[in-house]
Known about the structure:
Elements: E1 8-19, E2 22-34, E3 39-43, H1 50-57, E4 64-70, E5 73-74, H2 80-90, E6 91-94, H3 106-116, H4 121-134, H5 150-162, E7 168-172, H6 180-195, E8 199-203, H7 207-210, E9 215-220, E10 223-226
Parallel strand pairs: 3-8, 3-9, 6-7, 7-8
Antiparallel strand pairs: 1-2, 1-4, 4-5, 9-10
Helix pairs in contact: 3-4, 3-5
Amino acid sequence: MSAPSPMIELANVDRSYRTGPTQTYVLRQIRLSIAAGEFVTIMGPSGAGKSTLLSVLGMLDSEWTGEYCFLGHAVHAMPRKKRVELNKHHIGFVFQKYHLIDDLTVQENLDLPLSYRGIQPKDRAGIVAETLDRFGMVGKKDLYPSQLSGGQQQLVGVARAVITAPQLLLADEPTGNLHSAQGEEIMDLFTRLNRQGTTIVQVTHSERNAGYGNRIIYLRDGWIVDS
């Protein structure tokens, strides 16, 4: 019996920017395979290409070359609209800079990804209420992002990423703006989600956070140097 296909498979992925006559590479010849159910950490110095790699995996960056297969779909051969649909239905993303929608309340920010999945409003209301309670944010539900502290915005960002129970959770410095107790709670949540089957890929500088995962991939100057 053959082994199942990996959830994620990258082959010869390059990402570069052109500034005048200069071509600057951010990712070089990335070859990477991630199985469903793994908890992978990406580490490396600033400028190594960690966040760029996460954006490629999340289909937020399309200006790369090479091959990317996700759940058996050839992402590199897909038009942008199909990639967006794949992202909406399977991927949750915790952004380093939150990326909350400024003119939506906390409650509305959490409702949005559920609406993308086509979940009925009455069902969405229950899921949002449960998530607000889970993250201790019931009292903040009618506030806008500008009325929240950085740590509170980070919590909303994490809640929004996990609310749809995605198959793949991508997290860019998920505890960067949280105090230590909150950070531990988030990492414990990630551990529980992973045990329940969620595949997780996180970018972190924290050796402690990296210890929650089962594999570390090191990047330097856009290259994978160890995995």
